[in-house]
Amino acid sequence: MITERSLRKLSSPFIFTLVLLLFSGCLKNKLLISVDKDGSGHVVSTLKMGIPVAKMLKAQFEQYRDNLPPESKIKTFEDMFFRKELLEQKVRFFGGDLKLVKSKNMSWPDGSFSCIAVYSFKDITKIKIPLNKVLIDIFGNDGSIEFAFKKEKDGTSKLTVKLPKIEKAVEKKSEKKEETGKDLQKLTAQEQRTVRHYMGYGNPFGLTGKEGRKELIVKFFTDMVMEVAVEVNGKLIKSNASNPDKQDPRKVLLLRGDFTEMLEIKEFTGNMSKFLAAGRGAKVTEFIQVLNKYPQGFIYENKGEITMEYK
After folding, report:
1. Cα dihedral 85/87/89/95 (nearest 10)
2. What is the pLDDT of residues 159-169, one digit of tens each?
3. Which helix (H) or strand (E) covers residue 114, if one does?
4. Residue 77 Cα to chain centre, angstroms
5. What percent of the chain has pLDDT above 90?
């Protein structure tokens, strides 16, 4: 019999880590760090599941709902995948004293689903955001976004954002042959299990089980967007950020990947195949270095360190 405990084990690490982060199709995940004048602030996490992923997860919930004991706290689809403890678990990798303040789940008429969660923190300098947690979690992490904060005597607040400085990768001739090799089309055992999982729950992507990695990349990564931005709450005095918001320069973009745009580039699927095949053996900074080759669809703050002064 399926218990709530076994369901919790399935819903958290398997669904979120394996399905949504290994093959994050139709997923838009945005992270905004908002910093007040005293160095405290909020993190706003906005996640939107497209129709295929939402359909599959809802089908999974329907299968298990009838097997839950009457005393179970899981009564709805939202309880299963977006209850408080899972939302709190989502940011435990960021350190600091992040606390969930509120969250809101929204089901849309087209079948898609959104979750907005707001977390508070008292000290921005204790927050550290691993890059693999905001891109693709199967890669090893060797870089994080970190923050420094100083309050000047004249009342000016100074926020410093530190990112790994990553140069654009230079493509070698030998790499082109490797990227198109048949060995990169073969799926790992974990990837094969993920495909079977999709096919077993409504098959929202119309899989046959015969697709190679490149075909799956196109199916699963289309419509995927990952974004990290920071904003200061006050009057902006000075900033050296490369990608300020056009309407509100107090908000700056640190990282943004639009996989639909990048998939239009022929070499991109080959590079993605190589990294997915390497899994934990690949480092997230190496992945960003490759993405930096594609200005179409990818933005990264390459200065390594930006400062924002505000009152």
Report:
1. -130
2. 999 998 887 65
3. strand 113-121
4. 21
5. 31
Which pair of structure tokens corresponds to residue 62?
A: 């329907």
| pLDDT at site 6 | 37
| pLDDT > 70: percent of the chain | 83
Give SS3 for 270: helix
Task: Supply the DSSP symbol for 204.
Answer: T
Between 301 and 50, residue with greater pLDDT: 301
DSSP assignments along 135-183, one per residue: S-TTSBP--EEEEEEEE-TTS-EEEEEE----PPPPPPHHHHHHHT-GG
pTM of the complete model: 0.82
- 90: Cβ–Cβ under 8 A, 6 or more apart, which residues? 16, 45, 117
145 closest CA partner among 252, 274, 236, 261: 252
Report strand pairing: 225-232 vs 27-35: parallel
Contact 25, 222 (CB under 8 A): yes
Residue 133 and residue 95: Cα distance in Å, rounded? 13
Rounded distance, CA 282 to CA 300, Å?
19
Reading the block at residue 191, the tokens are: 């990837």
- The set of residues, in sequence order, having a beta carbon less than 8 Å from that of 119 and lying 6+ positions away, is 42, 43, 44, 45, 91, 98, 99, 100, 101
Average pLDDT, the chain: 79
DSSP string, 55-111: HHHHHHHHHHHTTS-TT-S--SHHHHHH-HHHHHHHTGGG-TT-EEEEEEEEE-TTS
Q: Which is it for strands 27-35 and 113-121: parallel, antiparallel or unpaired?
A: unpaired
Residues 197-234 pLDDT 10s: 778 777 877 888 888 878 888 887 888 888 999 999 99
